[in-house]
Amino acid sequence: MIIWAPQHLKAPPWMDIWNTTWYPKASDHVNTDKPWYVVDATDKILGRLASTIANRIRGKNLVSYTPSVDMGAFVIVVNAEKVAVSGKKRNQKLYRRHSGRRGGMTVESFDQLQQRILERIIEHAVRGMLPKGRLGRALFNHLKVYKGSEHPHDIQKPLDLPIRDERIQLQK
User: Fold this and answer.
1) pLDDT of residue 7
2) Euclidean distance between CA atoms 32 and 155, whole angstroms
3) Residue-level pLDDT at 170
4) Is-contact 109 92, C-beta < 8 A?
5) Predicted local distance difference test score (pLDDT) of residue 76
6) What single DSSP character describes residue 45?
7) Cβ distance 127 to 58 under 8 Å?
8) What is the per-residue burial (b if ≥16 Cβ within 10 Å, else e) of 120-140?
9) What are phi and psi of 98, to 5 degrees?
10) What is any one GO biological process for this UniProt entry (predicted)?
């Protein structure tokens, strides 16, 4: 038997010291401790903004990121009516929904949906970038979208969402 460490430094024989994985405890992801961010959607490209928001909500920016746990932050989006799309998407992008009845498919363009329910555009884009299933539905509740620059979450003291991608801003 080869001894590579003193006896008092050795792990017990039942303990595997090489294959231990850290997993977050319930106290590591309490909703009241999560940060709140606010982002102004004015002249921001929809898809790039949505992916940045989804990464923050998911918690992928954290060192302790775990795919199966809600570790992310809350994100508030203001000025949702001023979000930008590139190319001809304003007229050509279609949003479909179905009532569940025969012939119940309703198709709207980006412009039509923006005039009717403008918050749904950002919600739809972010929801598509979150995981599907129980975790994704729980994470989606961390997104708050408002038209105009006012929001009712001042008590949470939201920070400005740091955006590193300079391509997110629409070039005029």
Assistant:
1) 62
2) 12
3) 86
4) yes
5) 98
6) B
7) no
8) bbbbebbbebbeeeeebeebe
9) -130, 135
10) translation
Give the phi and the psi of residue 160 in degrees, each rounded to 5: -70, 135
Beta strands in the chain (DSSP E): 36-40, 74-78, 94-98, 105-109, 143-145, 159-160
What is the model's pLDDT at position 1? 52
Torsion of CA 152, 153, 158, 164, to 10 degrees: -60
| Residue 22 pLDDT | 80
Residues of the chain with pLDDT under 50: none
CA 154 to centroid of chain Cα atoms: 20
What pLDDT does residue 6 have?
61
DSSP 8-state secondary structure symbol assigned to residue 122: H
The SS3 call for residue 84 is strand
Q: Which residue has the tokens 């303990």?
A: 15
- Determine contact, residues 128/120, Cβ cutoff 8 Å: no
Q: Mind listing the domains of the chain with CATH numbers? A: 34-59+70-85+117-161 (3.90.1180.10)
- Through-space distance between the first and last CA atoms of the chain, rounded to whole angstroms: 73
> What's the confidence (pLDDT) of residue 120?
96
